[in-house]
Design goal:
This protein is α/β, with parallel strands linked by helices. It folds into two domains: 127 residues, 3-Layer(aba) Sandwich (Rossmann fold); 114 residues, Dihydrodipicolinate Reductase, domain 2. The protein has nine helices and 13 strands. The two termini are 37 Å apart.
Amino acid sequence: MKIGFIDKYLDEWHANNLPTWLREETDEIEAIYCWESMPSPNEGGIDGRKWAENQNAIYCETEEEVIEKSDVLIVLAPNYPEEHEVLCDKALRSGKFTYVDKTFAPTVEAAKRMIEKAKIHNTPMFTTSALRYAKEHEGVNSENIATYSSRGPGPLEMYSIHQIEPMVKYMGTNPEAVMFIGTEDSPAYVVKFADGRFATAAHFDWSCPFNISIKYSDDKPASYITDCTDFFPMFVKDLVRFFKTGESKVSFDDTLAVIAIREAILKAKNVPGEWLKTNL
C-alpha cells in the first residue's frame, strides 16, 4: 500500500503523527508520498522536504505526482476547511480511495459540491472527526434517545466538529435548527432535530474531557460517557480498513448533517437566543 499525504503544510499535529500510527497498525505500507502547498508558517516549523526526511517519506514536487504514485490518499489541512475544496479537487477526481481530514467543509454547499465530485469520478471518500471512534461508544444504545447533551474543550470554530460528530452518530441526520446560548469564551448551543428531539453541547476550558449524557424515552437506564479515550487508535484502524476496502462507515448524509450544524452554529453565535435553520 502506497499512501499519499496532501496538506497545506505538513508540519502539523495530524500529519506529524499519522505516519507512525499507520505503520503501527499495518505492515503493508510500502511507501508514503507527500506534498504541501506551502511550508509551515509557524515559528520553528519545517518545510515538506525536511518533514519527509523525518517521516521516512518521499516528497513530491507536485500534488499530481503524489496522486499518480499513491494507491490511496489522505488530504489533511485539518484547521483549514475553507481550503479543502481546492486542496481536494484533484484527489476527488482520481478514483483513488481518499480520506479527507476534519473539518470537511465550511458550508453545506461546499460539502455537497465535494461529495458530488467524488461520486461523479467514482472516488470512494469519507471524512470524520476521530471522536466518533472513542472506545466508550461501544455498547451504547442509539435507539429511542430522548435527549442528548455533551461537553468538551476547545474553541467553537475548531473544536465544535468533535462534539457534533458523535451527536449526529446518535441523534441522526435531520438537524432542523440551532440556537446559540453560550458566551464568547464558553460557547454553548441547542440543536433541534426534525422529529422534535433536542441535543445540547457546550465548550469549556482545555481541562474539560469530552463527555456525553444520553436519556432514553423508554425504560432503559441513561448512558453516561464521562470521558472519550483511544479514539485515534480506533480511527486509524478504520482508516486502514477503508484503504483496503473503499467502504466508509460514515455516510455522506452524516457528513452533511455535521457540516450543517457547524455552519448554522457559527452564524447563530451572532444572534444568541434565536433559532436559525440549518441549510440541509
